[in-house]
Fold these 3 entries.
Entry 1:
Amino acid sequence: MRLTGLDIARFLAFCGMVLVNFRIAAEVAAGQDLASILTNGLEGRAAALFVVLAGVGLGLSRASAALVSKRAMFLIALGLLNLTIFEADILHYYGTYFLCVLPFLGWTAPRLWGVAAGVAALAFAALIFGNYDAGWNWDTLEYSQFWTVEGYLRHTFYNGWHPVLPWLSFLLIGLGLSRLDLAAPPVQRRLSLWGAAMFVLGLLPAQLVPSGELAPLFGTAPIPPTPFYILSASGSAMVVIALCLCLGQSAPRLTNPLALAGRQSLTLYLAHILLGMGILEGLGLLGGVLNPMQIFLYSLVFCLLCLLYVLMWQRVSTRGPLEALMRRIAG
């Protein structure tokens, strides 16, 4: 039985990424208004939810290692093409996570969560003792030498937008969650409680070290990604997943459009870059022209239009264009 709540959560993760990415692309400075506060809260967390859900979906699909490998290579290739337009692409990371998780596909939940903790710890050590700034111009958010072997590996595994160390932890956590009976209300309740506890625990270290040179090492911002960010963002993802699972079961007719949209997350992800950001550029609305509320409303309207598109597309096919293409190419 398909868990529609997971599809609902995917669409919500997509909407969160739209809000964050549109503001970044439009170079809108965050303020103290409600729109900025809401978008700030989603930064790094919407994408984390997206990856946790990928782990859950991967575990529930019970796909073979060969099939996972094919889909991983498809996503890497598609992501590298997307990188020529949008430097913060997540798809090539997504595919790389899939390749890295191949040895763990059959593992139990406790062992997967143990590996996730190990990955986060290894990434923290690399953050402390390595040169995290290598390749970056933080003023312009440009990364030099990406298209070299050294630059690509460093960006993908260490200090890019969503590096394998530690973002692979999110996929492993999701893969572990897939071992649970997610359709059972008691499991959903425990998931929300565990998630809330993890969310709060992840925030505490930043309150103990609020300022100074060491403060970034205790923060929960996605850049640089600390273990406390992984803990907190995993917790918020678990809460959202639990709530969406409950909502999908209790109000299926009301939430069905959201679930349908979640099943086209790959198509919608590229659409928000090609169409959403393309329209902003075509109208000359990049470069800080808009204020936080304007880009917030533009993002919401775009998400609503995506929802309307999905409802119309259902009359043509049950799969999105890119989902159908991936299935044809990668199985």
Entry 2:
Amino acid sequence: MDEIEAIERATLAGVPPRAQESWNGWLLPFDDGTVGRCHSAVPLRHEAPEPGTLAGIEQRYAGAGLATVLRVPQLPAFAPLQAQLRAAGYVAYKPTLLMVGRVSDLAGPAESSAAVELSDSAAADWEQVFLGEGFDPVDGASRLAILRRGRDSVFASVRQEGRTVAVGAGCFSHGWCGVHGMRTLPAFRGRGFAGAVLSALARRAREQGIERCFLQVEEGNVPARSLYARRGFAPAWGYAYWKKAVGEGGS
């Protein structure tokens, strides 16, 4: 299994859809939650898709009763597919970076001395962050439920003033540590708690013998990108989601 396929399969191990299948060099997750990676078809290799790929993907999502969403790398090999998507009424949204790093860099000195608790499950105190101030409670509940499905995951949290204020999850799969669910309550940002969570996850990954890590971050999230860059993450490739515009058979 090459690096791209390992990352994409490890991604869905950390945010598992209700069902998935491999088809024609693509990984097709089927889910009705709010996590885009859980319900968007993604290529397992960065090569030009075969003719008929879009039609085949659409047929499979229609058969599952779901709208077709694709997660397409922003690479020259996919330019013909992007043109086909536009012609078919799809629009691109939420440009995102896939960033990779080394666990040894991530495990370096934390930016905060705050203690980080690690657990094999996302306990009820996680809800204080995912459903708390500054976040959409519907989206938070969906994301939390999906994260809780993850196997081989560890859940990190920082407590301050008697409550959980920062969280993150790491999933150890296919030789990678995937970082997911990084959130800090607005009133507690800028204190290094996210960095402390990353360090704790990296230390656990190192105990598992894993040397590489990855995460996804929206291109416009400059504070998060800066944090990840300081911890040794670098962009590997970018992608955008594609779905049909309203009025074109999509929503």
Entry 3:
Amino acid sequence: MGAAPVGACTARDDSGSDDRLQVSIAYKLTGVPGGKAKSLVRQARDAWVKLGYKFQSSDADWSKPFPHVNMRTEPDDFWMDAITGVVNRSAGEGLASLGVTSPCFPRSAGDQSTATSTALRHTQVDELAEHRALDHSSRIYEALQAPYSPAQAGEGPSAHQDSEGRWVHHAWSTSPLTEEETVRAMARTQAYFESAGWTVRHIPTGTDVPAIVARNAEDESVAQVAPSNTGAVRVAVTRPVVPGGSTPV
């Protein structure tokens, strides 16, 4: 998934001025047999433990739909996270994602990065929001009933911050579909949103099938499901880290 833009570091403990930076990089493996996705993440966890890395709090709760491991190196303090889950329950397809965030390092003279970066350290609240966004993606995947496409540039999980708050975002695409398959897939998705209590509206696209924008009143997540000229259906789920702010649609 590539490196996240370099961004401002977290504030210093002594509340002093801090112009240091940190950067993160993530790798996502899709189309994993559901029974093996957790095994892959456990392998990463076990390898990190053998290298002497420490859990941020405790091991993942492996009974959850999307267990999440957070560890760090000593003494240089790189942070690693790994998440796994089943994104297509009927087909048993899983996802495994690994990420690494660097410690703070001095800003170079030529770096023009700003504080609004996707390289944000994950808190427990961030993780809960990310899990919720991934869970919504999983339900949409089941409704579409279309093959999952390998991640393209700009897709996958990410975090963003602006003047209105902090958000987690998950974007992905299906494999190309025929027009008839797209119509059926979008109808199933709309039926899912309506049955689950989402507010649904339609937006014209460059195709004959309009896009769906849906809002979940419970957690203020916003989902966009849009057919493209390539035949792929593009999905994006955005959720505020702390519900109660305004979520841009």
